Sequence to fold (271 residues):
Amino acid sequence: MRIVSWNVNGLRAVHRKEKWKDVFALKPDILCLQEIKAQEDQLPNEVREVPGFYAYFNSSKIKKGYAGTALYSKQKPLRVSFELPKEITSKHNLHSDSYGDPNREGRVITAEFPEFFVVTVYTPNAKDDLSRLKLRHNQWDPAFLDHCVTLQSKKPVIFCGDLNVAHMPIDLARPKENEGSKGYTTEERAGIDNMIEEGFIDTLRAVNSSEHLYTWWSPWSGAREKNVGWRIDYVFASQDLEEILEDAAVHTDIYGSDHCPVSANFVLENS
Fold:
């Protein structure tokens, strides 16, 4: 079973660039998208209805053309839910800030399957001036992790998406220059540490611990061509799934966004 995750930075834009079908060359069984930047009824039919896949969309309720996630699956999920559960947001005091309510921005889809849960997530950006760092560190990251831990108490979990943070120096081309900047603050990196402490594995680092691989590049100064990038897109999985993790990869040959897709393959008994 192959999980593919991709921040498309505008699903309609990817379609206009005629890059939409390219991601299906990776042969996903489950495709998770972030930053779709569209309401479902704004999407082309070719994007809304993909033959052989069930499709689910969670668009921003705050404003159109912003954030949003999608999930496509060959197997119909047992159930699908959107955003973080109210009991968890209340527990962690996750509320609106000057930018809006992060739990109404279409940032999470949770799909339950017989053997596991799959969660796609688009984590709030801390902003250039770090004005959303406090909300992210104190409320969002703990609430999202609590959601995944709660699911994990029932069955294994795979969560993936744009986590908007490079975890270790190996995960960005210029760690010293970016120390303390958005995406590489102590607080954001601690969020990944906490995920690992709760028993989730970074699938790429489980199979490839030493290679410099990036998933996002600035659109300026030819950063992608020079490979001056950041790894901020991940597939995490419950430790129970590590023994069936076959491979994980970064697909830099897929274009259409300032991010590239990431994937993880799991060998299931019935696959």
